[in-house]
Every structure is written in structure tokens, then in C-alpha cells.
User: What shape does this take?
Amino acid sequence: MLEVDNIQYCQGSVYSLPVENASVDCILGVMIAQFLDLPLFYKEVRRVLKPGGCLILHGKGSPTAVSNPQLNMRVEEIKRDLFEGLWHDRTHFNLLKYTNMPELYSEFSREEFPLQHEMTLQDLLHYMMTWSASTKFCEREGITYAELRQKLGGLLGGEEDKSWLFEWNNFVYCAVKPMPS
Assistant: This one.
């Protein structure tokens, strides 16, 4: 872990952080909003943030192959057909790009930006295996990750070594705790 004098790392539940009241300058969460009990999380954020401190939540949409609509269609079919009923019930936060996030403080912003990256079929399969629905599928079907990966590879088809340019829509929600009046 990076050793920096003015950064402190701690591990704990997001609902009960092991830090003093009003002691944190910034809380950063990446791809977690859809898994949180937001009212409970916001209560803890209000407790630990210093006045002027900020909460930053980062999310991203699904990758889209820039010039391969057939591959995009196959990925969407897998998400819809194979993993039906296995998605977390609050994935709508990502689908709506955090525009539906409940406000924490009156001073907040939402930003959106694209990122592009070259990926092979193997890279895409690796990414798909990080989905929470993949874990639930393996549990439901009684199969291993390797078996699911093989199944997904067969459904996606294509050349394993060929790469495509993918784009992810990224979005950030930032809320700033007000200074005392």
C-alpha cells in the first residue's frame, strides 16, 4: 500500500467506520452505490466527514464495443437471458448514471465522462466474471467460475486474440458537507 503522510487507510463497515466524528476529508466509493443501504450510509458519512469534506461516488455503465454491434448485442442478450433475476435490485443507479441518487447535501454535482480501452475476448470474459450476477449464476447452477467462463466464451463466440475498442460511460457523484454557519 502506498505510504503517504497525509492519507490514512482503514478497514471497516461503511455503516460504522472506525474513525472519529468529523475527522475525514474525503470518502471515495467506486462501484458501490447500488449495494448500499443509502440512508444508513449517508448517516455515517454525515458523522465522519469534516465540514467542507466530500463524498465521491464513481460508477460506470456496461462496456460497449465501439465498432462491433453484434458483440454488443450478444453481451446484452447474456445480461438479459442468462442472468435474468440475478442482478442486484438497485442497479438502476448505474443505469441512470447516478441522476437518481438521493441528495446528501445541497452542494453536489454529477459529472459524466467516457473512457476507452482495447480489450480482447478474454479481457471481456474476465470483466464479465466480476459481475455480481456471475457469482449468483454459479451458485444457482452449481457450477464453477471456470465453467461459467467457458459457457460465456461459447455464447460470445469470436476470435480470442482479436481486440476491440470498448467505451465505458463513467459518472461521478460528489457531495460537499457544508461549513458551519
